[in-house]
């Protein structure tokens, strides 16, 4: 068997692990072409050493291969085909990362250098000291020159203002980018503050990356969950195992990792996340001082939220009950899945007088989320 994503894809299809899907196969073929282009591609290295001190910028020996931006609906296999590419890419200096995690690192590095400027590498551009973003691009390009981003999305103005300058530098330095997203490039940061300043980045993205829509097909996330129970009670080992199975099904067995969302200057921590699914303990979502904006952000960024350990709410837990109501409302309005392990059945969850009327709607929505017609609705992002 040959090496590369198309061969891995066809082997999985032949084994029955994947169903025939022409759009997925086209994505694998495009990634195979990039695989071949990377075999002999080698950007120059060494910008943080003597070349940097002499003010010599890193430049690729040849034009960098064009990357790929794959977008489309939830559950279409975008991350799966990108993973097949990443696993076989003939590049030592490569990295696959969730886009939000990458941007958190970007902000952390810039913040650290501003607090301790003496720790920032010294790089000269056009006879002058490079600014922070130019320096960061050189440092990143020294670490990896194939970047694969999962779930590329922009909602934060701080990210929007950095991206254009950072990626212009990365592309100049020969870094190759592959990205998956639920959004077409022209829909990134749509409605955001000062979006006109972000438009040149969209143009740059479309210039340097081939754009492929992977849509109009089966949502395999829905297919995997057909007939599966999404609400489990009582609490215990059996319910926890059921959540673990559901998470593995939805994410194709991807390894979960912590994630974060930036909301108006503060960070919402996600204990475990992978491929559009987030997994929480009840306490992390409802016993902390979270509000509607937090739950809305989760519903927008994740098509599935798993919650383990939901208790029967008594009056002394009325504040947590209100947060749970708000969470379910946000998930329902955005057509996200809620997969829940709870102490009791939905109609017995509420033991409060304070939220008795509101909880009636919550129970109704939890039950509706189990229905097949709800599962057929597209996630709203």
How would you summarize this macromolecular structure in one to three sentences?
With 381 residues, this protein is α/β, with parallel strands linked by helices.
Q: What attributes does this structure have?
A:
alpha/beta; Rossmann fold; 18% strand; 381 residues; five-stranded parallel sheet; 2 domains
What can you see in these coordinates?
- This protein has 381 residues and is of the alpha/beta class.
- The chain has helices at 5-15, 22-39, 50-53, 78-88, 99-115, 132-143, 157-172, 199-208, 220-225, 237-250, 282-286, 292-301, 318-333, 356-369, 372-375; strands at residues 67-71, 94-98, 124-125, 128-129, 146-150, 176-181, 209-213, 231-232, 257-263, 266-274, 277-281, 304-310, 313-314, 337-342, 350-351.
- It has two domains: 5-213, P-loop containing nucleotide triphosphate hydrolases (Rossmann fold), CATH 3.40.50.300; 220-375, Rossmann fold (3-Layer(aba) Sandwich).
- The chain is built from 15 helices and 15 strands.
- The strands form four sheets. Strands 8-14-12-11-10-9 form a six-stranded mixed sheet, with helices on both faces. Strands 2-5-6-1-7 form a five-stranded parallel sheet.
- Strand 3 (124-125) and strand 4 form a beta hairpin.
- Helix 6 crosses helix 7.
- The longest helix is centred in the N-terminal third of the chain and has 18 residues, at 22-39.
- Mean pLDDT is 85; it is low at 46-60.
